[in-house]
Design a protein that fits this description.
It is a single chain. The chain is of the alpha/beta class. It folds into two domains: 120 residues, Response regulator (Rossmann fold); 85 residues, Winged helix-like DNA-binding domain superfamily/Winged helix DNA-binding domain (Arc Repressor Mutant, subunit A, Orthogonal Bundle). Helix content is 48%, strand content 12%. It has eleven helices and six strands. α1 links the parallel β1 and β2.
Length: 235
């Protein structure tokens, strides 16, 4: 393996946290991953925006509570100025209102800092492919924000006649799996379809529901009670 860290195919990651110990811990683990390259660190949101514009990483791991500019504000600025960069919120505060602000700001991942290292690496890979990832606790908080207790959310029967506006039954199946955090490859395997067909279904879903990305599709499915958050959300 080369020592430049510039091999094609590596996911370029930037770490944003105001605690040096956290940054060092994340860097130490991520630098052991053969497909991930840590290209930089930032100490607060303002620093993150400036470095994201200069470094153009594939994925930013973003803390929320930081001085000068918080993570939600930084996420919005990065997604606006460097749209090719995806943001994963990595926080200790599942109850913090900034989590919901970051969702609106365009973050593609919402994880807690207690996540297992291998699960974090997998989440980075998913988000780099353009697929959202949700920690179950964050999903529950989203449901609380929407005003519906998670324990009352029940998935609609597969044969339900209450189809979403314009969606076919197959598209609803795909939408449910998107909400459960499945990648296109995983959806294809589960539904015995080609990955190309799944991509077409995803594109149709976004167009029919007037949604801009998979994250919003996942939140739409949760809001419409198409999935059981407690049972189906992946960690």
């Amino acid at each position: 393996m080369g020592q430049t860290g510039k091999e094609k195919g590596k996911i370029r990651v930037m770490i944003v946290d105001d605690h040096a110990v956290v940054r060092q811990g994340l860097r130490g683990f991520l630098e052991l991953q053969p497909n991930i390259e840590v290209v930089g660190e930032a100490v607060d949101g303002m620093d993150a925006v400036e470095k994201a514009q200069a470094l153009r990483p594939n994925v930013v791991l973003m803390d929320l509570v930081m001085p000068r500019m918080d993570g939600a504000q930084a996420t919005r600025a990065i997604r606006t100025s460097v749209p090719s960069t995806q943001v994963i919120v990595l926080t200790s505060f599942s109850e913090d209102e900034q989590v919901f602000a970051s969702i609106k700001a365009g973050a593609a991942g919402y994880l807690m800092k207690d996540i297992q290292p291998n699960a974090l690496a997998a989440a980075i890979e998913k988000v780099a492919r353009g697929e959202p990832t949700l920690h179950p606790e964050i999903a529950r908080k989203i449901m609380q924000e929407l005003g519906t207790p998670p324990q009352q959310i029940a998935a609609r029967p597969k044969g339900s006649k209450e189809l979403e506006p314009g969606l076919t039954e197959r598209e609803i199946e795909v939408l449910r799996l998107i909400a459960r955090g499945r990648s296109n490859r995983e959806i294809a395997d589960e539904l015995v379809l080609s990955e190309k067909t799944v991509k077409t279904h995803v594109s149709n879903i976004l167009q029919k529901l007037h949604l801009s990305d998979r994250t919003k599709a996942a939140l739409y499915a949760v809001r419409r009670r198409l999935v059981d958050v407690d049972k189906d959300t992946d960690g």
